[in-house]
Each structure stands twice: as C-alpha cells, then as structure tokens.
Design a protein that fits this description.
By secondary structure, this protein is mainly alpha-helical. The chain has two domains: 21-89, Arc Repressor Mutant, subunit A, CATH 1.10.10.60; 96-233, Tetracycline Repressor, domain 2, CATH 1.10.357.10. Helix content is 58%, strand content 0%. α6 packs across α7 (154-179).
C-alpha cells in the first residue's frame, strides 16, 4: 500500500517522531477524560473538513477543548495522529465473508476500501506511511490470503498484493483530487483534448477525460487486474 506520505514531525506537531512509530510504542493508560479514541475521532472530523495540511496539534487540542500538554500525554506528534486516523477509517471497510472464489473476495474488499477513501479524500495521499495499525493489517491479511488462494506465492504474491493496493489507492487519489480544491471542470478538460484531435487522435477518439462514472471505471480496472491473475493461475 504505497504512496508518498508526510515527513516525520510534520507541520503543527512536535519533532522527534516518525510515521508509524505510534504502533511500536506501548499505549499509555488514560489519566484524564481524554483518550486515544476521542483524539482519533476528533482528528478524523478535522481531516474530513479541512484536509491533512490544515490539521495541527493546536487545532486538535482546541477541538477537544483541552490544553496541548494534555494532548501530548496520549500522542507525541502529528504523525501519531495521522497514523491513528488512517487506521480508524479502515475500520469502516467491512471484511467480506469468505467465499469459494478468491477473486470475488479480493474485489469485494478493494471496492469497499476504495469507497471509504473517496469518503475521506485526505486519506489516499497519506498511504505511503508504514501501515501497522490493527485495522489496516487485518484487511491486508484478508486481501493477501485471498490472492494466495489463487496459487500465488512469494514475490508474485507480493507483486499482486501491492499492484491491487496501488490500483485502489491511485484511483481513489485521482477521484478525490477532482472533488477537492479549485480546478477547471472535467468537461472543459475533455473539450480541450477534443479540440486538439489532430495532435492527440487516439485520446480524442476515445473521449479521454470525459465525465464518467469513476466508481464503475475502477471496478472495471479491478476486473481486468484479477482476470490477468486468473490467467497466470492457470499457466
């Protein structure tokens, strides 16, 4: 599940921490009404509203109505908060019931995962972080075990897992980008390509950048990817 994430100790947080480190430290017991769960829920709300660039420890403390030192008892850096928030939204991805068809199981999981990331458009761009939280690992375990049932092993299994994950992340990242921030419309982008049909005949003929059902497009891409794995399975 690779895509570039934020640097350790990002803006608005303390330095000295690194992405993913929160999962390697012992969880401190609560000593006040604040908890890691409350912090995480508030962070997800802020991220959904304003994106990752706007999240700071000060704003998070204000959201929770606590002083920053209270917040730092539970989390050391902004990276801790982002790691916790990312893992929290993965809990929304319901793990499918296992069926007799490995490809159906893999597809069901990534379709749900993709939909979750689109609901939280800040998430796809952060998925280059070490993903060591329990919700992420449980769903990655399901995905890889489904692909393993196709007879894939070792490097090929790793390739298939990362390839399908990166297809999912990349599609969600592209879709999220079209819905966040000022930009020209998709209709205008498509018209620009059509106006230059002499230079880009294939793109113009196939209506590149046309308005489309992106969820359906992603599902078709997943089907193509899995069809290729089925072909490899029967070699």
């Amino acid at each position: 599940m690779e895509a570039k994430g934020l640097r350790a100790g990002g803006r608005g947080g303390r330095s000295g921490g690194v992405a993913g480190e929160v999962w390697l430290r012992e969880h401190k017991p609560n000593r006040d009404p604040l908890s890691r769960e409350r912090i995480t829920a508030a962070a997800v709300e802020l991220l959904d509203a304003n994106g990752s660039a706007a999240l700071t420890m000060r704003r998070l403390a204000e959201r929770l109505d606590v002083a920053p030192p209270t917040l730092y008892w539970h989390v050391k850096t902004k990276d801790d908060v982002l790691d916790l928030a990312l893992d929290a939204i993965f809990a929304e991805v319901a793990i499918p019931e296992r069926t007799a068809d490995w490809a159906v199981d893999a597809k069901t999981l990534v379709i749900r995962w993709h939909a979750t990331m689109v609901r939280h458009p800040w998430a796809p761009g952060l998925l280059g972080r070490p993903m060591l939280g329990p919700n992420v690992l449980a769903r990655t375990e399901f995905l890889q075990s489904a692909l393993e049932r196709a007879g894939l092993a070792k490097q090929v299994l790793s390739m298939a897992t990362h390839g399908l994950a990166n297809l999912t992340i990349g599609s969600a990242l592209t879709e999220s980008a079209w819905h966040t921030g000022p930009r020209i419309s998709q209709e205008s982008a498509s018209e620009h390509v059509r106006d230059k049909a002499a230079t880009y005949p294939t793109l113009a003929a196939n209506n590149h950048l046309a308005v489309m059902d992106r969820a359906a497009l992603f599902e078709e891409a997943v089907d193509c990817f899995l069809a290729g794995l089925r072909t490899r399975q029967h070699r």
